[in-house]
């Protein structure tokens, strides 16, 4: 029986979707294993491993940052470990206290809630969507629809726009909701006691005010603001309003700090791509 090479374009999304889904699912499983069976400690972000990532055409790029955490394990030893996840924007800046889940057998393997979990879930969801599109195209191929027909009528293009747009849209929504979660959290009045710095996506230095405040529980806390400033740095001694995350009191924003512009950009372009993909797919199915 001769192999029909016309099926190869249809198999591409099936294979890619399966790779994305399995890879994301394995990372999610690894994170859950560390949370359930690994060690747990509170650590300090002591540095950021910042590396330049160039665009595919070499015309630009941005810095990707992976936080370096120092923590004391159950055996009393101090360890330093780097997150496996690098991001262009992160609130895990030097000086912030964070919760760490680590592998007791190899403390260099860590999981940081609020930083490491999202990418694995998004990776798995993208894989699931791409795999579903690929399987639908494969089913249509078995029913006599050729790969050329699928390309000509725009089904695969519409699906591609939906996948890309949905992924970008999800990232934008997640970023904005994360900020709003903090902005609607407990409110306190604090005072700026110092400053720490981080590196922005284009290599510019961001200045983060370190604030001391009394939480609603009566505990006195200190933490750097998650939103850095390029200009108009806040002087030491300035009184300021602090909003803290309901479940992570060291994750804070200051009065006037709103969602990042990047979040709205992802929301806009993701929504646009999703709308175009949806319209293309609807038009193919109804005309």
Automatic annotation (TrEMBL):
Keyword Secreted: no
The keyword Membrane is annotated on this UniProt entry: yes
Transmembrane regions: 6-25, 120-142, 154-180, 261-285
Keyword terms of this UniProt record: Membrane, Transmembrane, Transmembrane helix
InterPro entries: DUF3592 (IPR021994)
Pfam families assigned: DUF3592
Domain DUF3592: 42-112
Protein name: DUF3592 domain-containing protein
